[in-house]
Amino acid sequence: MDIKRNYKYLLSDLTALKGVGIKTTNLLKKKKINNIFDLLWKLPKSYTDRSLSSKIKDLKIDEVQTITVIPQKYSFPRVRNLPNRVLCKDETGEIDCVFFNSYEGYIKKILPVGKEVTISGKIKYFRNKYQLTNPKYVSEDSSIIKQKHNSYSLTEGISEKVYNKIIFQIIDNLPKIEEWHSKDILRKFDNISWNESIKKLHNPENIGKFKENFYQRLAFDEIFSTFLVNSEIRKKIKRIKKTKKEFSVKNQNKIISELDFSLTKDQSKTLDEINKDLSSENKMFRLLQGDVGSGKTIVSLLSAFNTINSGFQVAVMAPTEILARQHFLLAKKIFPKNIRVELLSGKSSYKDKKVILDRLLKKQIDIVFGTHALFQKKVEFKKLGLIIIDEQHKFGVSQRKKLSDKAGKDCDVLLMTATPIPRTLTMTIYGDMDLSIIREKPNIRKPIKTYSKLENKIEDVIKFVKKEIKLGNQIFWVCPLIEESKKIDHTSAVKKSKYLEKLFPKQVYLLHGKTTADEKEIILNKFLQNDFKILVSTTIIEVGIDFPNANVIIIENANKFGLSQLHQLRGRVGRGNKESSCILMFKSNLSDNAKKRINILKDSNDGFRISEEDMRLRGFGDILGFKQSGIKNFRLADPVHNHNLFILAEKEIKRIENEKENISKFKPLIKLYDRADIINDIA
Ligand code: ADP
Ligand code: MG
Predict the structure, then answer these.
(1) Which of 623, 518, 639 is nearest to 562 (CA)?
(2) Ligand 1 pocket test target in 260, 261, 580 with most atoms within 8 Å of CB
(3) Residue 136: which domain range?
(4) What CATH number did the domain enclosing 130 receive?
(5) Residues with CB under 6 A from ligand 1
(6) 3 state SS of 155
(7) Is residue 667 domain-shared with residue 537, that is, in the same domain?
(8) Element at 667 (helix H, strand E)
């Protein structure tokens, strides 16, 4: 084998290891351990100390101990159910090694008569004699046995001994790796190298020492490599030169002055950021993050307007038809009449669609709204200058990269999400984009009052609903969402809607998992037009749609949701200028922790703050949208516990970007850690 191995050794197949064959490889692959590097992150859970040896006369029964003995005599009875035995001695006494189901040849090999061997295992006492059954730790080389042996949560079919052997084979052969971090960074971790850190990570005495330099350094490597990949993608996109968009903000300001509200400070700031990108010669790839109801739509439409004014076309993609239509109608309302606005609906007739496609290609349409159907191949633009994607939190990094690659060279990209997430996650998930945040919400809005109610107080809730309906208001009623059983979800929602239907005849509609997209749209449209009063649903009600007349949301079994999710649900109401309320219903009295969580929700309407608290209380895995976001699971790093490492990584990335540092020295880091292989052509 090549002695001057470098980091590539760590990326080699498991079969490169001694004693690892196809069988073991396949077992490990089932656990997503595909190469040597992957093995390094399977950490010991506990260890058995076999380092101290004892004499036979001092053995303690029922404890794991290590002794050095000389085998004396074999006894192989060759009778079914009778074990094979080897009598062993040291100068202080005797012990029987007992073997069930082991071949004589094997026993003779590991315990040769007359040769000193070290054995370790749990000692029993049976018929006046010490006994060790099926000893697994046996060697003529006592140093192999006299160690701390790690236990791992093992893959079935691989013994602990074999596993230890594999891991320590890797640890002993760690290739020489050039330090990739700057001196300043390294100093923060007491200058510990990657190799040293890995060794410490597998030292059984360090189990659980998350705060120590070796662990912190390795967690930092992981965060940093993710950020570095993000930064590279961002730089790559920026390097693409485009035709500057030239427009006068005078026209834009005219539209603003005609709105029936004035923009918030954050809206104006964000609009400026986008405008600057549009008129620069670098391609824009920007995320607009803002809580529900923060007013992202108007900002995006204004930037669309500027793009159109500079002679380009715009495509706006929404997650649902109904939302696409809402945006389309708003654009028609606020844009001057000379701007040609179109909606490409899945429902339009073939002929109508064809006409639209044709006009897009001839640049007879300036802006088109639609769902993901907008990105089919046959939809072609003559001069597309901006793509706006609303509520896109379901895209992962690689999907976004594809999107940006697909958009023509002159085409800017603006993504919008209404899922506020903690800062550490934003950097991790969206670090490949430039970021604008709308934090402050329009202040015309009356705060949503949030209440909690026990389920047996449903009479009170009904009374309240009656009162609201009398005032002409509409109600969302969310039924328990129990992921384990769609069937139960369904029946409970059906039952609830029947119950409500009795109380409010002809005023109740139900949306559930089995409602087809078409039916759903019809129902939502009816609700929007105030044709009925109560919308019962099992699934989360479509993000982003404005139901200005709905001002009450009732959420049953509210403890099934995380804080961020409850906040999102609550955001469905309070979008008009009415007093609105959110009633959280619970089956039983709340625990102290649950009360704490609910109080955060009652206290605050700041989605960013709520998501931070949510993450602190429940860990980052549960944050809304996390699973769909395509964020990779860190092996060691944790956005809650390693907050400072995320901040440090961000700072270091900024420094590297500012100083235009050559990143080729990070190649091994990226190659090792970037499992998605997003930038395979780096440096
Ligand atoms: P979101 O950020 O959730 O997409 P929208 O853009 O749908 O929010 O805006 C929600 C509502 O707030 C809309 O009815 C919109 O007209 C209104 N709105 C937006 N900006 C302002 C503002 N600055 N002042 C008052 N109302 C606003
Ligand atoms: Mg929106």
Answers:
(1) 623
(2) 261
(3) 51-146
(4) 2.40.50.140
(5) 261, 263-264, 267, 290, 292-298, 418, 442, 444, 544, 546, 575
(6) coil
(7) no
(8) helix 667-673
